[in-house]
Amino acid sequence: MLIYPAADKCTDKFAAEITALLARSDIRCHYTRFGERPVIVADDKSAAVLPILQPYRETIEETVDVDEPYQLASKRVRPNGTVIHIRDFIVGGGHFGIIAGPCTIETESQVLTAAELVKKGGATALRGGAFKPRTSPYAFQGLKLAGLKILQKAAKETGLATVTEAMSSEEVKLVAEYADVVQIGTRNAQNYRLLETCGEMRIPILLKRGYSCSLDEFLMSAEYILAGGNDQVILCERGIRTFENYIRYTLPIAAVPMLKTATHLPLVVDPSHAAGRADLVPSLSFAAVAAGSDGLLVEVHPDPKHALCDGRQSLTPEEFAVMTEKCRKIRTALQ
Ligand code: PEP
Ligand code: MN
After folding, report:
1. Cα(257)–Cα(254) distance, rounded to whole angstroms?
2. By alpha-carbon position, which residue is closest to atom 3 of ligand 1?
3. What kind of architecture, by CATH, is found in domain 2-64?
4. Short-list 70, 26, 77, CA closest to 48
5. Tens digits of per-residue pLDDT, 215-240?
6. Which of 61, 124, 278, 325 could covalently link to 88 via disulfide, CB atoms 3.0 to 4.6 Å apart?
7. How far, in Å, CA of 40 to CA of 5, rounded?
8. pTM: predicted TM-score of the whole model, two decimal places
9. Mean pLDDT of the chain
10. How far is the CA of 216 from the centre of ligand 1 (A)?
11. 84-334 CATH, one of 3.40.50.300, 3.20.20.70, 3.40.630.30, 3.40.190.170
């Protein structure tokens, strides 16, 4: 359950007192802030907790019982949903955010061209990896700091928000200096120390679903970030591994309405890594929009045939613009 002490009465000492009191009854507590509000997350329900907290009832503003294993991520915490807003990039609250760009930052001209073209095609955020999680240690690993500087330059020139991946706690801190959103990739979705670092940051985190994670596990990963006091989390469904091997991953489209019911966090869908092929990307995007996604993350390359990474699944800027226009029409039709 969630215990919200009155903000003016909640000191660290008060939280420590409550924590110690509940610990005597084997109830574990975690004290943090959710948005501006102090909150104590207890691992039991109000029926067990409230009698113990009787002496403090004047100091407690509100309590919320949550049935799910995740608590701060639960829809009950913010029924109207969380909205993430960076310049023109808005996800959640009925807004649709489109993140687009190459898999990898290769050169300055590649990124600047991609940025201009995806902006024209309807994107409000630019993606591009500087630290790349490659299956082979011999594959191109990304331009690292030099890549972050290119991304920052593209943001300055176009006004687009930027999203880029970090794979270690040190990289999270570095990326936060150059980009607007830190991406945690599918391979690190359950790297709990890394998620704790994201929780300490005050920058939006785009958390991809682990390709073998259940939705509960996905939301528990988000919970690690929220528990640290960072409530700016964007979920990203990017496909899971199944027995199907015609398609790179399987995009579980039902995850979209399911997550919208379960959590207040905004959700974007990545059709590119799910499909693994550019020709499938528009159909998956349309399905995601129709299912109620708050946005898309799409790989777009000015010259997909010569891309250093994921060219096969990258749209050309022209294909991207045609697709986003159709997405817009689908959204309008469903409103
Ligand atoms: C990416 O977005 O470039 C990426 C590597 O994605 P994922 O972690 O979903 O494979
Ligand atoms: Mn990629």
Report:
1. 6
2. 103
3. 2-Layer Sandwich (3.30)
4. 26
5. 999 999 999 999 999 999 999 999 99
6. 124
7. 8
8. 0.97
9. 97
10. 20
11. 3.20.20.70
